[in-house]
Write a structure and sequence with these properties.
There is one protein chain. By secondary structure, the protein is α+β, with helices and mostly antiparallel strands. It has one domain: Alpha-Beta Plaits (2-Layer Sandwich). Helices cover 34% and strands 18% of the residues. A five-stranded antiparallel sheet has the order 3-5-2-1-4, with helices on both faces. Strand 1 and strand 2 form a beta hairpin. The protein is globular.
C-alpha cells in the first residue's frame, strides 16, 4: 500500500497537480510539504488524491485534512525536520534515513531550503503548505491500520 500511495504522490507531482517537496507515510497518517499551481485548488487536489487511496487501496480517510501555510524558509525547515523526525519520535526507526516510506520530489530545488527557489512567483506555484492527512481508524490493541 505504501508504495502505491507514494507512487500516486509522485504521479500528481509529475502531472503538475501539486509540487511535492516531501511526503512521508506513517501507519495511520501522512505528512507532506506541498505547493499548488494556481489552477488547482488545495482541497480539490487533496480530495482527488484521497479518492485514489479510498477506491484503489481501501483506505478510510478522515473527512478533512490539516493544512498549514509556510510563510518563510525558517518555517519550511522546521516542518521539514519535524516530518523526517516523526517516525523516530514514534519509535518506528532509529534514524530518519532508516524510514522507507518517504519520497522527496523537488528535483532541482535545494532541500530543505527550497521554499524561496521553488515557490517564487516565477515558478507559477502558490504558497508552500505543510499538510497532514489521517485515516479514520486509529490503532488499537491490535496495532494501527497500516498505510506503510
Amino acid at each position: 500500500m505504501g508504495n502505491a500511495l507514494l507512487g500516486a504522490a509522485r504521479n500528481y507531482h509529475e502531472r503538475n497537480r501539486w509540487y511535492c517537496w516531501l511526503i512521508l507515510l506513517m501507519p495511520d497518517h501522512l505528512h507532506a510539504l506541498l505547493a499548488f499551481p494556481p489552477q488547482e485548488s488545495v482541497a480539490g487536489t487533496v480530495g482527488s488524491w484521497k479518492q485514489f487511496g479510498s477506491r484503489r487501496l481501501g483506505i478510510e480517510w478522515q473527512e478533512d485534512f490539516f493544512d498549514h501555510r509556510l510563510r518563510n524558509d525558517h518555517e519550511f525547515g522546521l516542518k521539514w525536520d519535524y516530518i523526517l523526525q516523526n517516525p523516530v519520535a514514534k519509535g518506528l526507526c532509529a534514524r530518519p534515513e532508516d524510514w522507507l516510506w518517504v519520497w522527496q520530489g523537488g528535483a532541482g530545488c535545494p532541500q530543505p531550503a527550497g521554499l524561496g527557489a521553488c515557490a517564487s512567483p516565477e515558478s507559477g506555484l502558490g504558497t508552500a503548505r505543510a499538510t497532514s492527512i489521517a485515516t479514520k481508524k486509529k490503532g488499537g490493541p491490535e496495532g494501527p491500520p497500516s498505510l506503510t
